[in-house]
Specification:
This protein is an alpha/beta fold and 333 residues long. The protein has two domains: 108 residues, no CATH class; 192 residues, Rossmann fold. The protein is built from 14 helices and nine strands. The strands form two sheets. The protein has a seven-stranded mixed beta sheet with strand order 5-4-3-6-7-9-8. A two-stranded antiparallel sheet has the order 1-2. Helix 3 crosses helix 4, helix 3 runs parallel beside helix 5 and helix 4 packs across helix 5. The protein is elongated. The protein starts with 7 loop residues before the first helix and ends in a 12-residue tail after the last helix. 38% of the residues are buried.
Length: 333
């Protein structure tokens, strides 16, 4: 599928506060000296490393980030680098690639905010600064079918909490074609982005976005599967964010003093919204030790992915409904 160009809104946001570094002939040298995709990958990687950029919004290194930005800017498949390495760029293409490389450095915004796109398991989602750049480990569990193996049956009713861009709700709808999916989100801006992605992926007849706080919008409803990727970053860590992470909505990150306030709320309430054979799957970041210490009676199953270990928990409805007053250990100060 062709990758559309950057939207006007994204371009405008990306250019806010940005002054072009192209001031003399020396600065313009890349436009005449760098000819191929390979040349531009090397140049971008060097520039990103020298600038000390932070990665983690879908890419893990300067080279990965360079590949994403170059291929996306040239409207090439982002998972096919080899065929294009020695392809020569036209003059306008070189100008576009240089521009986005320099904007990435000058603005320190995640690459996806500059391109207006993000990918999970090969699927393209439209994003902007109203939503966190999608990168949940749960996406891999859904798209690869690993989650299917752990469920007693294919779910017919799915709930996605803190849906953000709507990516996990969409992945669930595509994986389970007979299921209806409710996607809950508190941010009005994120809801608008989610609606756009749901429309683009053609699942609007089965995915509903519900505005509100966690489980409040689904009072009285029960599901076969609840997936959740709530904010789980400690307040002190949010304060110390690098510019890339600070560019994302704070409410999509901050989870209280130890990062796990919303995780605790979901654990306390999810059992009331699961069918008897249902399950909760939730990403909690690096809080495994804290959660296991606070809930010693809950037999969490930890689901590892290609790039994570012990950051996604799974627990059944029966175990959640067995929580009794006094069994949870108090949170540590």
């Amino acid at each position: 599928m062709p990758i559309p160009g950057v939207t006007a809104a994204v371009v405008s946001a990306a250019w806010t506060g940005y002054a072009s570094p192209m001031t003399d002939d020396t600065d313009k040298a890349p436009l005449t000296e760098l000819l191929t995709v390979r040349d531009w990958l090397r140049f971008a990687t060097s520039r990103f490393r020298a600038a000390g950029l932070t990665f983690g919004h879908g890419t893990a290194s300067a080279l990965d980030e360079a590949a994403f930005l170059v291929l996306e800017t040239l409207h090439l498949p982002i998972d096919q680098l080899e065929p294009w390495l020695d392809a020569r760029l036209t003059t306008p293409e070189r100008a576009s690639v240089l521009d986005i490389i320099e904007r990435r450095i000058a603005t320190r915004k995640p690459a996806s905010y500059l391109t207006g796109t993000a990918y999970i398991q090969g699927l393209r989602f439209v994003v902007d600064e109203r939503v966190i750049v999608p990168r949940s480990f749960i996406g891999e569990l859904i798209a690869t079918g690993r989650l299917d193996e752990m469920l007693s049956q294919a779910p017919s009713q799915v709930l996605d909490l803190c849906t953000g861009s709507g990516c996990l709700a969409i992945l669930a709808a595509l994986r389970f074609p007979d299921a209806r999916v409710d996607a809950v989100e508190l941010s009005r801006g994120a809801i608008e982005v989610a609606h756009n992605n749901i429309r683009d992926h053609g699942v609007g007849d089965r995915v509903s976005v519900l505005p509100g706080d966690l489980l409040a919008p689904v009072a009285g409803r029960r599901y076969d599967l609840i997936i959740a990727n709530p904010p789980y970053v400690a307040a002190a860590e949010v304060v110390a964010f690098t510019p890339e992470y600070a560019a994302e909505p704070v409410m999509a990150h901050i989870g209280g003093s130890d990062g796990l306030d919303l995780v605790r709320r979901i654990l306390a309430e999810a059992g009331n919204h699961l069918e008897s054979a249902g399950a909760l799957v939730m990403e909690i970041g690096t809080g495994r030790a804290i959660i296991e210490a606070e809930y010693p009676h809950l037999p969490f199953l930890w689901l590892d992915t290609e790039t994570s270990e012990g950051e996604v928990l799974m627990i059944g409805a029966a175990e959640l409904s067995d929580q009794k007053p006094g069994r949870r250990k108090p949170a540590r100060n």
